[in-house]
Amino acid sequence: EREQFAQKLAGFQALRHLLADMMVETEFARSMADLAAFGADGLASPDELLDRARARVCRAAKVVGETSIQLHGGMGMTDEMAIGHYFRRLNFLQAMLGHEAGALRRRVQALATELARPKAADSEVTA
After folding, report:
1. pLDDT at residue number 126
2. Cα–Cα distance between 7 and 20 in angstroms, integer?
3. What domains can you pick out in the chain, each with its CATH number?
4. What is the dihedral of CA 48, 53, 54, 56, to 10 degrees?
């Protein structure tokens, strides 16, 4: 509804690009959540899918929340604007469910453990 230079702010190309970026992040998160919920037909373990989905959802929540606040300006964090309540709720949920870094750290540890294990084919060749 706000106007600048005699036109609606929503008509500016820079704002449209930010909204498009937010939509892409949302769709990535939705896709990963669906993949974790319904499985990947043996492509990854359920724990791996959950960690990947958690990391993607946390990243999307951060990007979408911060960009929304930026688009609304300082009034986005006031109690009168719903976006501030949503942003605070997203931050709370991330703290409760684990941030992106925690999920990625578990994936790194799992990969390091897998790489440290000798493979069956390697042990047969040396025997």
Report:
1. 57
2. 20
3. 3-118 (1.20.140.10)
4. 130
Cβ–Cβ < 8 Å for 118, 127? no
- Tell me how many degrees the CA angle 24-29-30 measures, rounded to the nearest 5: 95
Coil, strand or helix at 3: strand
Contact between residue 61 and residue 99 where contact means Cβ atoms under 8 Å apart: no
Residue whose entry in the numeric block shows the structure tokens 């453990």: 113
Half-sphere exposure for 100 (CA within 13 Å, toward CB): 12
Instruction: Please state, in angstroms and rounded to a whole number, the distance separating the CA atoms of residues 55 and 90.
Output: 14
Question: pLDDT digit string (tens) for 73-89?
Answer: 878 888 888 888 888 89
Residue 55 amino acid letter:
A
